[in-house]
Predict the 3D structure of the following.
Amino acid sequence: MRALWLFAVCLLLNGCSGGGHLGPSYLVGATSLECAPYARLLTGIALYGDADRWWIEAAGRYTRAAAPGVGGVLVFRPSDRLPSGHVAVVHSIINRREILVDQANWVHHEISRGEPVIDVSPGNDWTQVRVWWSLSRQFGTTIYPAYGFILPERSRVAALEP
């Protein structure tokens, strides 16, 4: 069963932007390791294409929220550093301005689990975030623009549509 799961992961991890990067050997050989397929695998949210399109594609299909929910997906807007955006899955909520996320390819070709993200937006609405950079063991200095959170069906009760 584990081998089947690993095979499914390898097939699904194919791109925030559809790039063809080689993945680490612990995922059974060469594979692309990108954020959008990884988030889809963890959440069951059936959205496809570049990560920055998830917010628009979610309209009318999933609850979009300004506050995190466990199992929800934080959607980053495109920026100079993230031309195709980025998505990360909320692993847990620390407080109203800090969450832990699971994500792929924040650190090139790696899966990051339980890494901190903080809300630094002036309105406390998760439209600007800073992300933990594990290579330096501190928060990065870049402030990333974000749309908000897409919540899977099971989280709809706790969400408020922005």
Notes: The CA atoms of residues 43 and 58 lie 13 Å apart.
